[in-house]
Amino acid sequence: MRSVFDLPVEVDREDPRYQAFLDRIDRGEKIEADDWMPMDYRMQLVKLIAMHGISEIMGAFPEKEWVPRTPTLRRKLSLMAKVQDEVGHGQLLIRVAEDLIRPLGFTRDDLFNDLFAGRLKFHNVFHMPALNFADAALIGWLVDGAAIVTQRMLAQTSYAPYARALRRILAEERFHAFHGEDMAQTLAQGTPEQKAMLQDALNRWWDALLMFFGPPEHAGIKSNQDINIRYRIRSKTNEELRQEWLDKYVPQIRALGLQVPDETLHYDQAQGRWVYRHPDYSYLKNVIARNQGPRSQARLALRRAAFFDHAWVHEALAAQPLAAAGD
Amino acid sequence: MSEERAQTAATTASTPAGGAFEPYLVFKQMEHRGPMESEYTVLAPNAEMALAMAQENFMRRQEAPYNLMVVRERDIVRLPEELRQALVRTMPRDYRSVPAYAHVARRWQELKLATGDDAPAPRR
Amino acid sequence: MTALPRVTTADQARADAGFHRALVELLYQAADDDLILAQRGAEWLGLVPHIEEDVAFSSITQDMTGHALALYQLLEELGEGQADHLAYFREPSAYRCAVLAERPNGEGTYLDSPRFDWAYTVVRQYVYQRFKRLRLEAMVKSRYQPLADLAEKMLREQFYHLYHWEVWMKQLTGRTEEAQRRMTEAWTRVLADAPSLSSLGPGEQEILSSGVLPWSLEKPFRQALEESARSYGLPAPNAWTMPEVNGRDGRHSPALPPMLEHMAEVYRIAPAGAW
Question: Which pLDDT score, from 0 to 100, does residue B17 have?
């Protein structure tokens, strides 16, 4: 099956438009969808934004698994609204990605086929199981917290449509952050069993949370950060973002009386940074990127069901009325 | 039903055969990344002509917008009056609003968030 | 509709045993319908055929859950117990939802190999919302003022719900052969359960005579379905036979008990606790 990711990425650096484009970037101007842009910029955006969008859609599943079991009606309403927002954010982002690939002759369906074929990845955290209700709380609290740190940085991106989508997403996620913290506080201050559920979730999710930001720059795993930073698609390194996240959430974790499952974790005043045990980042490349995580295939199967089982719906919507029946 | 009504309205307002002039809505964008604001409308045979005439019809003084946009009026589908009730919200949706979670910040304060000897200085 | 005085507070309602009994019965029917069908809606999250529709459908599901909550709160005021407790912690035989609301979305579960049926979901939601409109219009004229006030608010919001599914009904009928076949099949299955919706259960006489509801819903509902069949080119509803179990008397299909069990899985860890 054809894929936008198979297209050759050729950039003619002698093209006068290329230098003009770099000048715009250096002046801090924002690029619009119908502006000229070099192919490597376009493809870098497609990769980043399509992955972001697909991750929001796939990211609905682990929390959604608990929506029908959410134990009060009010919490059920808010958790449902939150999961709905994730799908809605996926929608905003996928639309931005679609507009980037349409001039190349590709559509939303092609992106989903890339997902099913393993060419389009989704974030590591959404390959993990959500084993108890506290996992839903932890996702809302710490996974969303990590996403907000990353997104706040990306909102400065040079690509205007992505920046606009992110501004809206960040505004909506203010409620998500408080909602996640509310769930975490409530469980931590609840019965011993509730608190134990939350600690158990933290133990299981800790490595995945650190990995969310990607390997630190010196680890030598190939990353696309250089080009991202040259084109001002992003402005901070993986490690800078991870440190920001630790700044905010380690104090919260401690305030709730929970233990971070890393006895080496501490803040080094002299270096002005957190020192901690790094997870094995090769897991991202060897397991997650191959969709071999604990829930990778199961969640892909859910998405496939939504896509293929309802082909008849798309056919019917695209069809003209059979006759004048019903009018 | 509404859709059909809109269609009919557009067809009746449509143009003599051959001389396909139609109304186009003009939008101006005053600055890069600014909102597209609806200006007035022009009667034009196609989008290219509509664009070419729009600026001097509505912005012929000093103003210099960043960009212009035209949309053929009959391509716009509005919610008809009888369906606008669908926009009404009567039951509370506070569960998805930030103020409904004011107690969260209070609880962090009570929990003495900043305790611990290795808390970082706030950074930006 | 003469001269029976309005009942304006829960205390007044509780002072009249017959009225109270009829009111509680109707409130359970309406609350449980919304709760249970919204639970079926929540199972669809992330699995809907189109991303934009996933978002729109979820708002309807949230509204229905909100309506259920508001109705349980009326029951709470009437001395039935705490709202969440009513939603999560009754025996299956205490639920009064119509059997139509509890039918599964299709084969499999939302956790494992869902083979959900979008045609059935569209038709069921449409028929339910068509019915709900009629029930809310009647509730607005209820003798119980707090219910009439709430129904007024719910009715305005429910406008979108019915309109939304009307559009889907229109878009999936008369298009392709396959869609027509699936929609007709779904329509037939939903119609077989439709009488369960307008049934008021064993307490029907009391609900009507006490003025909790001003009129029976069956006739207007049947008329509405006949009109629907005509406008969407679907088979007319001919027989109006009550399904073997209809739910209104507490007897349910085998789908309900495991559904409730699943819904309350976490609640049972710390009933009445904070979550």
Answer: 45
Q: Are B8 and B44 in contact (CB under 8 A)?
A: no
Per residue in C160-203, pLDDT (tens digit) is: 999 999 999 999 999 999 999 999 999 999 999 999 999 999 99
The predicted-structure confidence for A90-139, as pLDDT tens digits, reads as follows: 999 999 999 999 999 999 999 999 999 999 999 999 999 999 999 999 99
What is the Cα–Cα distance from B96 to B77, expressed in whole angstroms? Answer: 30
Residues of B whose CB is below 8 A from A255 = 108, 111-113, 115
For residues C251 and C243, is the Cβ–Cβ distance under 8 A?
no
Q: Residue B53 is part of a domain; what is its CATH number?
A: 3.10.20
**pLDDT surpassing 50 at residue B2:** no
Q: Which chains touch A (3 or more CB pairs under 8 A)?
A: B, C
Residue B38, SS3 per DSSP: strand
CA distance to partner chain C, nearest, from residue A229 (Å)? 32
Contact between B116 and A256 using a beta-carbon 8 Å cutoff: no
- What are the structural domains, with CATH classification, of chain A? 4-215+225-318 (1.20.1260.10)
- pLDDT score, position B15: 45
Neighbors of chain B by Cβ distance (3+ pairs < 8 Å): A, C
For the residues B88-109, what does the mean pLDDT come to?
Answer: 91
B67 has which bridge partners?
B29
ipTM over 0.90: yes
What pLDDT is stored for residue A230 in this prediction? 86
Chain B residues whose C-beta sits inside 8 Å of any chain C C-beta: 83, 85-93
A181 burial type by CB count under 10 A (0-12 exposed, 13-18 middle, 19+ buried): buried
Beta bridge partners of B43: B23
Total structural domains in chain C?
Answer: 1
Does residue B36 belong to any structural domain of this protein? yes
**By residue range, what is the domain housing residue C109?**
10-269
pLDDT digits (tens, 9 = 90+) for A137-163: 999 999 999 999 999 999 999 999 999
Helix (H) or strand (E) holding A310: none
The secondary element (H helix, E strand) that includes residue A232 is: none
Q: Confirm whether C224 is domain-assigned.
A: yes
pLDDT digits (tens, 9 = 90+) for C21-54: 999 999 999 999 999 999 999 999 999 999 999 9
| Confidence (pLDDT) at C239 | 86
Identify the CATH number of the domain in which residue C202 sits: 1.20.1260.10
In a domain, B56, yes or no: yes
Domain membership of residue B122 (yes or no) is: no
- Which range marks the domain in which residue B29 is found? 2-75
Measured between beta carbons, the chain C residues lying within 8 angstroms of B93 are 62, 66
Strand ordering across the sheet containing B36-44: B36-44, B22-29, B67-72
* Residue among B32, B97, B111 whose CB faces A256 most closely: B111
Long-range pairs, C83-90, Cβ under 8 A, ≥24? C83/A73, C84/A71, C84/A72, C84/A73, C84/C267, C84/C272, C85/C271, C85/C272, C86/C31, C87/A73, C87/C31, C87/C35, C88/A71, C88/C263, C88/C264, C88/C267, C88/C271, C89/C264, C89/C267, C89/C271
Tokens representing residue A184 in the block: 């975490």
Query: Looking at the 3D structure of chain B, how many domains does it have?
Result: 1
Query: Residue C229: inside a domain, yes or no?
Result: yes
Integer Cα distance of C65 and A77 in angstroms: 7
Residue B67 lies in a domain: yes
pLDDT of amino acid B124: 43
Q: Report the pLDDT value the prediction gives residue B19, as an integer from 0 to 100.
A: 59
